[in-house]
Amino acid sequence: MSRARMEAFSDGVLAVAITLLVLDLHVQPTSGGHLLGQLLAAWPSFVAFLVSFVVIGVIWVNHHAIVRLADSVDRWLLFANLLLLLFVTTLPFASSTLSGAIAEGDAADIRVAAAVYGGVMTGMAVAFTLLYGRITSMLVASGAMDQRARRARMLRFSAGVLLYPLMTVIGLFYAPAMLAAFAALSIYYLFNQTGVSDN
């Protein structure tokens, strides 16, 4: 399979996932309640949407940056890519579940929903690190990257593997703080942690 085909497939899946996020945003202006009150009451949906949208957007940008490093695509790379897409496609469900639980206010349900959301985010971090690790190992094997540079890049790129589970623990006690922490980590990844030139 060509690199372009894998990237085109991934772009399509990411586009669908990021679009599905908006389905959780809804109010009922004809229900008799005040629209402003409904919008304010729906803040968990808007916050979860925004955080999840930024996460998928940053994944898309970084996915493009690292996949273009690959001279070839092998089965391991394809499966690592599919694993990443598995977690990305579950993010709309996790986002909706978390925002619904926060809106309802049941503490036990919020903890479960935070664990689901955090688990999806952690899974994405692990899968993305595996994908990047496979590409960089291929670069080392071809002589295009030395092992020391690979270790430094992997360390910087894989921060989420440790931080997402820690943030999930925070979410078990206060879910909005977890969402804020996830947003902050997305900003970290927004500033090119791949070590790949933007040119």
What does this structure look like?
With 199 residues, the protein is mainly alpha-helical. It is 79% helix and 0% strand. The longest helix is centred in the middle third of the chain and has 36 residues.
Approximately how much beta-strand content do the residues carry? under 5%
Determine the N-to-C terminus distance. 25 Å
What low-confidence regions span 5 or more consecutive residues with pLDDT below 50?
none
What fraction, in percent, of the residue positions are helical?
over 70%
Structure class: mainly alpha
Order of helices and strands: HHHHHHHH
Radius of gyration: 18 Å
Query: Residue-averaged pLDDT, rounded?
Result: 89
How many DSSP helices?
Answer: 8
> Shape from CA axes?
elongated
Largest sheet: none
The beta-strand count equals: 0
Short description:
The chain has eight helices and no strands. It is mainly alpha-helical and 199 residues long.
